[in-house]
Amino acid sequence: MGVTAEWVSAPAVPEAGEAALMARVAAGEEAAFRLLAERHAPPLLRFADRMLRNRAEAEEVVQEVLWRLWRQAGRFDAERGRLATWLHAIAWRLCLDRLRRRGADLPLDAAAEARDAAPSPLDLASRQAEMAALAVHLAALPERQRAALTLFYHQEMEGPEAAAVLRLDLRAFWSLLRRGRAALRARMRGD
Q1: Where's the RNA polymerase sigma-70 region domain (predicted)?
Q2: N or C of the chain: less Cβ packing under 10 Å?
Q3: What is the pTM of this model?
Q4: How far is the C-alpha of 117 from the C-alpha of 140, rounded, in Å?
């Protein structure tokens, strides 16, 4: 099962039905697994790709997350949080492991998702330069600040959900996010 364009056109699965689908996955039902995988693979891939800046590694991370979803579906507890939070937390830890094994932080490719309707060549060049600068400065931040900014702004997670992914209490998450924004602003002003 590859993480390719086939994941992009996934049918919507109502969030309320995800707990029931997880129960079906725990019972070994492949159709329920496929529905959940089709829904969650695209945002997981975007997150992993931003964190790792390596599409092949990001796809491997998503495959591992989906494998764990299949194998550990019975451990999911809808009372403790959303499925997206649980899956992003797994992806976060896998990305962190890979980054630490590399021994270096690579820049995020924030420009990868810049989608303007039909910008002029001058606008496009200007936007690409801004996004490249942002990616460089974002990559220079500590991993936790980068992850907080990515989850909150790029993945559009609510604060409590992003805090759960990073295993922080909400107050600590807001503090981390505030420090990350301040550090990013300071780095951008230095250019």
Answers
A1: 36-103
A2: C
A3: 0.57
A4: 30
Confidence label for 106 from pLDDT (cuts 50, 70 and 90): very low
Quick one: 135 and 99 in the same domain? no
* 119 and 176 inside one domain: yes
Write out the residue range of the structural domain in which residue 78 sits: 12-106
117-175 pLDDT per residue, tens = 345 566 556 666 776 777 788 888 888 998 898 888 878 888 898 899 999 999 999 99
Does position 184 have pLDDT exceeding 60, yes or no?
Answer: yes
What CATH number is given to the structural domain containing 154?
1.10.10.10
pLDDT tens digit string along 94-103?
988 888 887 7
Question: Do 94 and 161 share a domain, yes or no?
Answer: no
Residues 35-53: b if buried by 16+ CB within 10 A, e if exposed: bbbbbbbbbbbbbbbbbbb
